[in-house]
Sequence to fold (667 residues):
Amino acid sequence: MFTGQACYSREMQSQEVSLPLIRSLTYNPPVATSPVVGDVSAHLGAQMPVLKKTHDELAEIARQIRKDVCVMTYAAKSGHAGGPLSAADYTTYLLWNVMNIDPDNLTLPERDRFILSNGHCSALNYALLSHRGFFNRSYLLTFRSTPSRLQGHPNRLKVPGLEASTGSLGHGLSIGLGIAMGLKLSKSPGRVYVNVGDGELQEGSCWEAIMAAGHYKQDNYCMMVDWNDAQIDGKMTDIMNIEPIDKKLEAFHWHVIVADGHDYDAIKAAFDEQQTIKGKPVAIVFKTIMMQGVPSYADDYKWHGKFLDADALTVALRELHFNETPDEAIASYGEVKWHGR
Amino acid sequence: MAVKDWQLELTREAYGRTLVELGQENPRIVVLDADLAVSTLTKYFRDAFPDRFFEMGIAEQNMVGVASGLALAGYIPFLSSYAMFLSGRAYDQIRQDCDYQNTNVKLAAAHGGISVGQDGPTHQSMEDLAALSAMVNMTVVVPADFHQTQKLVRWAAAYEGPVYFRMGREKVPMVTDADTPFEYGKMIQLTHGGDCTIIATGLMLWMAIEAQRELATEGIGVRVLNAPFIKPIDEAAILQAAAETGCLVTAEEHNVWGGLGSIVARVVVGSEHLVPIEIVGINNMYLTSGPWTDLLEVASLTTTRLKDAVKTAIRRRDARVATASR
Fold:
């Protein structure tokens, strides 16, 4: 269908894309056939690979993911690059070294769940799923184009591996809490990880979910806060300060961990600790830097909702240590096609 | 005839009792409430199945999101609050988490409409049917009475997809019985009559029946169609009624800006049967506090109004026929 490398820019954005084509790309998420009610511990013999990469290997995956995010927004001429680059390290650690997920078994009831509540960072979610084996990497170049499954904000009905559709801020915590409550009811060992932006916590419904999770002592539930102190209109602490976040969450009966979101030893220690906590939900506040990995643009809130043009991508590729021009970077993805679970 | 001449029962009583039956039959049924369990009558389920009942506190937005998560984990959540606080306060969650993601959530709204009595307009819901029926995947239902609510709740548990239904606060006349059919997307014809059709939803049904009986004594035959389903709408029944009776009256406890009347009118104007339609509903006004029967009078949701509407519809139809034949 999408053959030739120029497709990502010309045919993908053409107005002549047919509706039947779009329908053919709609993905029907598989329905869980395993029993979800009652004790599922009998199913635990199933393969649930946690990959356990070395920190050097993870850093390389995260470097590739940062390239993907930059190239995707360049190809789409839209999208958000800043947040994906700040969250890339700890989410890579999570999907490779923490979570029990298997692209070949999408519906296993005991799988762990990841929800990107700040859905505008969708480029990160797509790049993570692609590298983790849910679909092929070249398809990332279709990001935000009309017939693509990779919409501006994640749609769980279109992309295998997505657990929830997000985009309207302040929803992911509630949905994730509901899944976590269901897993407990089923006596499933699955855990739920929800990523929120720091600015997202300005949404009141987040605090409804935080209150309920503390009340229900939801210890199979982990919130990761991407604390990059940046949102559309400025620094989070200037726009609507949510500090002191640790004291607030502790007052809501949460266990709070604060960690450097770009240091794999600190990330490992945080995720190791959260798995030991009983009787409380866990928040990991990852201190991060917007556009981390591209020093020329780092820690500038203006990159929240920006895409990279050719000049910016040239800088980003160089600073991410890819010896490629933008055209060479696009070519490196090969034929643009869908191959997914 | 008046309300007191009917056998009265609570629709939410049917909801609460049927949930307990379903809970016994299906371990996937779970129930959530926002500090109104004694009012929405989910308390019966809470007492019978405490492990599968989730008290979410006074936080409707979170409740809707959590219910969507429970659905994604394989459960069938019923959640309750007052219609205004579900459809209003948690609109974004219903749209994004239930409708857009097509999750299997059952939104059971109590205290719908304006007949909720003395709490006043903050607790009255007359916009919900328009708001919810504009959603893509949502099924919107208004049960007319106790028996129809029982059937609806059973049907909703078996149906895969988001459903919003709206019950009332007060005991309302039991018009249907245990044998009255209830089928997805279908209207139910309750009386025959060739002069006009009243399409009524929710508690307007008993007034439609009263109007039909009183008009029969004047020699006017009225077909009464009950529309429990606002979305999807039974287009075939509407068009058959338009073709066979030549004029329509719609009746709903809802603002006339949106709701059943607007939906019926859309179906009719898109057809070959361009018949007169009289839309009976709340005429874009906030009500007040008071006994529910008073409120219906103030809103002009009465048997008398329906009779007038039928006569107006017939007059408009006949005037049109006379003009055409001139």
